[in-house]
Automatic annotation (TrEMBL):
Pfam families: Bac_luciferase
All residue ranges annotated as the Luciferase-like domain in the record: 9-302
Name this polypeptide is given: LLM class flavin-dependent oxidoreductase
Listed NCBIfam families: oxido_grp_1
Family note: To bacterial alkanal monooxygenase alpha and beta chains.
Amino acid sequence: MTILSILDTAPVWQGSSPARALRESLRTAPEAEAMGYHRYWVAEHHNAPFIASCAPPVLVAQLAAATSRIRVGSGGVMLPNHPPLVVAEQFGTLEALNPGRIDLGVGRSPGTDMTTAKALRRVSSPPGSEAYREQVRELVGLLTPRPGDPVVAVPAADGAPDVWLLGSSVDNGRFAGELGLPFAFAHHIRPQNAEPALRAYRDAFRPSAAFPEPRTLLASSVIVADSAERAEWLAGPSKVIVEQSLKGIRNAPNVTPEDAAKRHWTAEEDAILRDRMAHHVIGDPETVRERLGELLEGTGADELMVLTLVHDLDERLRSYELLAKTMSGDGSGRSQ
Protein backbone atom coordinates (compact mmCIF):
# COMPACT_ATOMS: atom_id res chain seq x y z
CA MET A 1 0.00 0.00 0.00
CA THR A 2 1.10 3.54 -0.72
CA ILE A 3 1.95 5.77 2.23
CA LEU A 4 -0.14 8.90 1.74
CA SER A 5 0.28 12.33 3.30
CA ILE A 6 -1.13 15.83 2.81
CA LEU A 7 0.46 19.21 2.14
CA ASP A 8 -1.86 22.06 3.13
CA THR A 9 -1.29 25.69 2.18
CA ALA A 10 -4.55 26.86 3.82
CA PRO A 11 -5.76 28.30 0.50
CA VAL A 12 -7.83 31.48 0.60
CA TRP A 13 -10.69 31.68 -1.90
CA GLN A 14 -12.70 34.57 -3.28
CA GLY A 15 -15.56 35.31 -0.92
CA SER A 16 -13.75 33.63 1.99
CA SER A 17 -11.04 34.81 4.40
CA PRO A 18 -7.69 33.72 5.86
CA ALA A 19 -9.41 32.96 9.17
CA ARG A 20 -11.84 30.61 7.45
CA ALA A 21 -8.99 28.96 5.54
CA LEU A 22 -7.17 28.22 8.80
CA ARG A 23 -10.33 26.83 10.39
CA GLU A 24 -10.74 24.56 7.37
CA SER A 25 -7.24 23.22 7.99
CA LEU A 26 -8.20 22.41 11.58
CA ARG A 27 -11.26 20.56 10.31
CA THR A 28 -9.31 18.70 7.63
CA ALA A 29 -6.52 17.25 9.77
CA PRO A 30 -8.76 15.04 11.98
CA GLU A 31 -10.59 13.85 8.87
CA ALA A 32 -7.28 12.99 7.22
CA GLU A 33 -6.24 11.10 10.34
CA ALA A 34 -9.45 9.06 10.24
CA MET A 35 -8.81 8.26 6.56
CA GLY A 36 -5.39 6.86 7.42
CA TYR A 37 -3.12 9.60 6.09
CA HIS A 38 0.37 9.45 7.57
CA ARG A 39 1.45 13.12 7.73
CA TYR A 40 -0.19 16.51 7.56
CA TRP A 41 2.24 19.30 6.68
CA VAL A 42 1.63 23.04 6.36
CA ALA A 43 3.50 25.53 4.21
CA GLU A 44 5.16 28.86 4.91
CA HIS A 45 4.23 31.77 2.65
CA HIS A 46 4.17 35.48 3.35
CA ASN A 47 2.33 38.48 1.90
CA ALA A 48 0.26 36.14 -0.27
CA PRO A 49 -3.48 36.92 -0.17
CA PHE A 50 -4.24 33.46 -1.55
CA ILE A 51 -2.45 31.51 1.21
CA ALA A 52 -3.15 31.75 4.95
CA SER A 53 -0.36 29.43 6.10
CA CYS A 54 2.38 31.85 7.13
CA ALA A 55 3.24 30.70 10.69
CA PRO A 56 3.92 26.93 10.59
CA PRO A 57 4.79 26.36 14.28
CA VAL A 58 1.58 28.07 15.42
CA LEU A 59 -0.57 26.12 12.98
CA VAL A 60 1.23 22.84 13.70
CA ALA A 61 0.50 23.27 17.42
CA GLN A 62 -3.20 23.66 16.69
CA LEU A 63 -3.22 20.70 14.31
CA ALA A 64 -1.46 18.49 16.84
CA ALA A 65 -4.01 19.45 19.47
CA ALA A 66 -6.87 18.60 17.09
CA THR A 67 -5.50 15.12 16.30
CA SER A 68 -4.00 12.19 18.18
CA ARG A 69 -2.00 9.95 15.84
CA ILE A 70 -1.18 11.56 12.50
CA ARG A 71 2.26 13.16 12.18
CA VAL A 72 2.05 16.94 11.77
CA GLY A 73 4.72 19.34 10.66
CA SER A 74 6.06 21.94 8.28
CA GLY A 75 6.38 21.63 4.57
CA GLY A 76 8.23 23.66 5.28
CA VAL A 77 9.86 26.27 7.41
CA MET A 78 11.79 28.55 5.06
CA LEU A 79 15.01 28.55 7.02
CA PRO A 80 16.65 31.71 5.56
CA ASN A 81 13.77 33.64 7.16
CA HIS A 82 14.52 32.46 10.71
CA PRO A 83 17.36 32.02 13.22
CA PRO A 84 18.00 28.26 13.53
CA LEU A 85 17.94 28.49 17.34
CA VAL A 86 14.38 29.85 17.29
CA VAL A 87 13.25 27.11 14.90
CA ALA A 88 14.93 24.45 17.06
CA GLU A 89 13.24 25.79 20.19
CA GLN A 90 9.83 26.03 18.53
CA PHE A 91 9.85 22.54 17.05
CA GLY A 92 11.60 21.08 20.08
CA THR A 93 8.70 22.41 22.13
CA LEU A 94 6.19 20.90 19.71
CA GLU A 95 7.96 17.54 19.89
CA ALA A 96 8.11 17.67 23.70
CA LEU A 97 4.36 18.23 23.84
CA ASN A 98 3.57 15.71 21.06
CA PRO A 99 6.31 13.07 21.26
CA GLY A 100 6.91 11.08 18.10
CA ARG A 101 4.48 13.10 15.99
CA ILE A 102 6.35 16.21 14.80
CA ASP A 103 8.16 16.73 11.48
CA LEU A 104 10.35 19.72 10.73
CA GLY A 105 10.63 20.17 6.98
CA VAL A 106 12.97 22.99 6.00
CA GLY A 107 13.50 24.72 2.67
CA ARG A 108 15.60 27.50 1.19
CA SER A 109 13.02 29.49 -0.79
CA PRO A 110 11.94 32.81 0.76
CA GLY A 111 8.31 31.77 0.34
CA THR A 112 7.37 35.24 -0.82
CA ASP A 113 8.34 38.18 -3.04
CA MET A 114 11.78 39.69 -2.65
CA THR A 115 10.48 42.89 -1.02
CA THR A 116 8.84 40.88 1.74
CA ALA A 117 11.86 38.59 1.92
CA LYS A 118 14.02 41.56 2.87
CA ALA A 119 11.69 42.24 5.79
CA LEU A 120 11.97 38.59 6.92
CA ARG A 121 15.49 37.40 6.24
CA ARG A 122 18.11 37.49 8.96
CA VAL A 123 20.92 36.96 6.41
CA SER A 124 21.53 39.00 3.27
CA SER A 125 22.95 36.09 1.27
CA PRO A 126 20.68 34.56 -1.38
CA PRO A 127 18.79 31.48 -0.17
CA GLY A 128 20.76 29.10 -2.39
CA SER A 129 24.14 30.16 -1.08
CA GLU A 130 26.51 28.45 1.36
CA ALA A 131 24.87 30.53 4.10
CA TYR A 132 21.75 28.38 3.78
CA ARG A 133 23.77 25.19 4.08
CA GLU A 134 25.38 26.52 7.24
CA GLN A 135 21.97 27.34 8.64
CA VAL A 136 20.82 23.77 8.04
CA ARG A 137 23.93 22.35 9.70
CA GLU A 138 23.45 24.73 12.63
CA LEU A 139 19.82 23.65 13.00
CA VAL A 140 20.68 19.95 12.90
CA GLY A 141 23.40 20.53 15.50
CA LEU A 142 20.97 22.33 17.80
CA LEU A 143 18.54 19.42 17.52
CA THR A 144 21.26 16.87 18.31
CA PRO A 145 23.08 18.54 21.22
CA ARG A 146 26.36 17.25 22.63
CA PRO A 147 27.78 17.71 26.12
CA GLY A 148 29.55 21.03 26.39
CA ASP A 149 27.64 22.78 23.60
CA PRO A 150 27.61 26.50 24.51
CA VAL A 151 24.07 27.02 23.15
CA VAL A 152 21.26 24.51 23.63
CA ALA A 153 17.71 24.50 22.27
CA VAL A 154 16.45 23.38 25.66
CA PRO A 155 13.19 21.57 24.76
CA ALA A 156 14.97 19.61 22.00
CA ALA A 157 17.42 18.10 24.49
CA ASP A 158 14.87 15.44 25.48
CA GLY A 159 13.86 14.58 21.92
CA ALA A 160 13.93 16.22 18.51
CA PRO A 161 11.46 16.25 15.64
CA ASP A 162 12.30 14.42 12.44
CA VAL A 163 14.11 16.88 10.16
CA TRP A 164 13.35 16.70 6.43
CA LEU A 165 15.12 18.69 3.75
CA LEU A 166 12.77 20.06 1.10
CA GLY A 167 13.78 20.85 -2.43
CA SER A 168 13.17 20.69 -6.16
CA SER A 169 16.70 20.39 -7.54
CA VAL A 170 19.52 17.88 -7.87
CA ASP A 171 21.64 20.06 -5.60
CA ASN A 172 19.01 19.91 -2.85
CA GLY A 173 18.82 16.15 -3.15
CA ARG A 174 22.58 15.73 -2.95
CA PHE A 175 22.81 18.02 0.10
CA ALA A 176 20.07 16.08 1.93
CA GLY A 177 21.91 12.84 1.21
CA GLU A 178 25.22 14.19 2.47
CA LEU A 179 23.56 15.14 5.77
CA GLY A 180 21.81 11.81 6.16
CA LEU A 181 18.39 13.49 6.25
CA PRO A 182 15.17 12.37 4.56
CA PHE A 183 14.37 14.28 1.36
CA ALA A 184 10.99 15.69 0.30
CA PHE A 185 10.92 16.54 -3.40
CA ALA A 186 8.53 19.20 -4.73
CA HIS A 187 7.24 17.44 -7.84
CA HIS A 188 4.42 20.00 -8.06
CA ILE A 189 7.04 22.70 -8.64
CA ARG A 190 9.79 21.05 -10.73
CA PRO A 191 8.47 17.71 -12.06
CA GLN A 192 11.29 17.39 -14.58
CA ASN A 193 13.86 17.23 -11.77
CA ALA A 194 12.22 14.44 -9.79
CA GLU A 195 14.13 11.40 -11.01
CA PRO A 196 17.62 12.99 -11.17
CA ALA A 197 17.18 14.71 -7.79
CA LEU A 198 16.06 11.54 -6.03
CA ARG A 199 18.85 9.58 -7.70
CA ALA A 200 21.42 12.16 -6.57
CA TYR A 201 20.01 11.96 -3.05
CA ARG A 202 20.37 8.19 -2.87
CA ASP A 203 23.86 8.24 -4.41
CA ALA A 204 25.04 10.85 -1.89
CA PHE A 205 23.29 9.41 1.16
CA ARG A 206 25.40 8.95 4.25
CA PRO A 207 23.67 7.08 7.09
CA SER A 208 22.95 9.16 10.18
CA ALA A 209 21.96 8.19 13.70
CA ALA A 210 18.32 9.07 13.06
CA PHE A 211 18.17 7.75 9.49
CA PRO A 212 20.38 4.76 8.68
CA GLU A 213 18.61 4.38 5.31
CA PRO A 214 17.54 6.96 2.71
CA ARG A 215 13.94 8.14 2.96
CA THR A 216 12.07 10.00 0.21
CA LEU A 217 8.77 11.76 -0.18
CA LEU A 218 7.22 13.11 -3.37
CA ALA A 219 4.83 16.08 -3.19
CA SER A 220 2.41 16.25 -6.12
CA SER A 221 -0.72 18.19 -7.14
CA VAL A 222 -3.65 15.76 -7.07
CA ILE A 223 -7.41 16.16 -7.49
CA VAL A 224 -9.72 13.15 -7.47
CA ALA A 225 -13.48 13.14 -8.09
CA ASP A 226 -16.11 10.52 -8.84
CA SER A 227 -15.86 11.36 -12.54
CA ALA A 228 -13.14 12.75 -14.77
CA GLU A 229 -15.45 15.60 -15.81
CA ARG A 230 -16.03 16.64 -12.21
CA ALA A 231 -12.32 16.50 -11.44
CA GLU A 232 -11.54 18.76 -14.41
CA TRP A 233 -14.17 21.24 -13.24
CA LEU A 234 -12.73 21.26 -9.72
CA ALA A 235 -9.29 21.86 -11.24
CA GLY A 236 -10.45 25.00 -13.06
CA PRO A 237 -9.04 27.33 -10.38
CA SER A 238 -5.64 25.60 -10.66
CA LYS A 239 -5.60 26.44 -14.34
CA VAL A 240 -6.27 30.09 -13.51
CA ILE A 241 -3.50 29.99 -10.88
CA VAL A 242 -1.05 28.77 -13.52
CA GLU A 243 -2.17 31.51 -15.92
CA GLN A 244 -1.79 34.20 -13.27
CA SER A 245 1.63 32.91 -12.26
CA LEU A 246 2.83 32.98 -15.87
CA LYS A 247 1.65 36.58 -16.19
CA GLY A 248 2.98 37.63 -12.78
CA ILE A 249 -0.44 38.81 -11.56
CA ARG A 250 -1.09 36.38 -8.71
CA ASN A 251 -2.10 38.94 -6.09
CA ALA A 252 -5.65 38.05 -5.01
CA PRO A 253 -7.53 35.12 -3.42
CA ASN A 254 -8.02 32.03 -5.57
CA VAL A 255 -10.99 32.11 -7.93
CA THR A 256 -13.91 29.70 -7.57
CA PRO A 257 -14.61 26.90 -10.08
CA GLU A 258 -17.64 28.87 -11.28
CA ASP A 259 -15.47 31.88 -12.07
CA ALA A 260 -12.79 29.71 -13.64
CA ALA A 261 -15.39 28.14 -15.93
CA LYS A 262 -16.21 31.61 -17.30
CA ARG A 263 -12.63 32.18 -18.46
CA HIS A 264 -11.93 31.96 -22.17
CA TRP A 265 -8.47 31.26 -23.54
CA THR A 266 -7.21 31.27 -27.07
CA ALA A 267 -6.14 27.95 -28.54
CA GLU A 268 -2.52 28.97 -28.02
CA GLU A 269 -3.11 29.98 -24.39
CA ASP A 270 -5.02 26.78 -23.72
CA ALA A 271 -2.20 24.68 -25.17
CA ILE A 272 0.36 26.43 -22.96
CA LEU A 273 -1.77 25.96 -19.86
CA ARG A 274 -2.37 22.29 -20.59
CA ASP A 275 1.35 21.78 -21.05
CA ARG A 276 2.12 23.54 -17.76
CA MET A 277 -0.50 21.45 -15.96
CA ALA A 278 0.49 18.12 -17.46
CA HIS A 279 2.15 17.03 -14.21
CA HIS A 280 -1.01 17.72 -12.18
CA VAL A 281 -2.78 14.42 -11.51
CA ILE A 282 -6.48 15.06 -12.10
CA GLY A 283 -9.26 12.57 -12.77
CA ASP A 284 -11.45 9.75 -11.56
CA PRO A 285 -10.03 7.24 -9.04
CA GLU A 286 -8.81 4.71 -11.59
CA THR A 287 -7.05 7.31 -13.74
CA VAL A 288 -5.39 8.86 -10.69
CA ARG A 289 -4.32 5.46 -9.35
CA GLU A 290 -2.64 4.57 -12.63
CA ARG A 291 -0.86 7.92 -13.01
CA LEU A 292 0.36 8.00 -9.43
CA GLY A 293 1.49 4.39 -9.64
CA GLU A 294 3.61 5.26 -12.67
CA LEU A 295 5.00 8.32 -10.91
CA LEU A 296 5.98 6.41 -7.78
CA GLU A 297 7.48 3.56 -9.79
CA GLY A 298 9.49 5.96 -11.95
CA THR A 299 10.92 7.90 -9.02
CA GLY A 300 11.11 5.16 -6.40
CA ALA A 301 9.69 7.55 -3.78
CA ASP A 302 8.77 5.96 -0.46
CA GLU A 303 5.80 8.20 0.18
CA LEU A 304 3.33 10.40 -1.67
CA MET A 305 2.25 13.79 -0.31
CA VAL A 306 -0.65 15.48 -2.10
CA LEU A 307 -1.48 19.15 -2.56
CA THR A 308 -5.19 19.37 -3.38
CA LEU A 309 -6.42 22.84 -4.32
CA VAL A 310 -10.18 22.41 -4.30
CA HIS A 311 -12.48 25.31 -3.45
CA ASP A 312 -15.25 23.57 -1.52
CA LEU A 313 -14.03 21.89 1.66
CA ASP A 314 -16.43 18.95 1.39
CA GLU A 315 -15.26 18.33 -2.18
CA ARG A 316 -11.65 18.58 -1.00
CA LEU A 317 -12.30 16.01 1.71
CA ARG A 318 -14.01 13.80 -0.86
CA SER A 319 -10.88 13.96 -3.01
CA TYR A 320 -8.76 12.84 -0.06
CA GLU A 321 -11.21 10.05 0.68
CA LEU A 322 -11.27 8.76 -2.88
CA LEU A 323 -7.48 8.91 -3.07
CA ALA A 324 -7.02 6.99 0.17
CA LYS A 325 -9.38 4.29 -1.03
CA THR A 326 -7.99 3.93 -4.53
CA MET A 327 -4.34 3.87 -3.41
CA SER A 328 -4.91 1.23 -0.74
CA GLY A 329 -5.18 -2.45 -1.40
CA ASP A 330 -8.28 -3.03 0.66
CA GLY A 331 -10.50 -0.05 -0.09
CA SER A 332 -9.48 1.97 2.92
CA GLY A 333 -6.73 4.41 3.80
CA ARG A 334 -3.43 3.27 5.24
CA SER A 335 -3.34 3.36 9.02
CA GLN A 336 -0.12 4.41 10.72
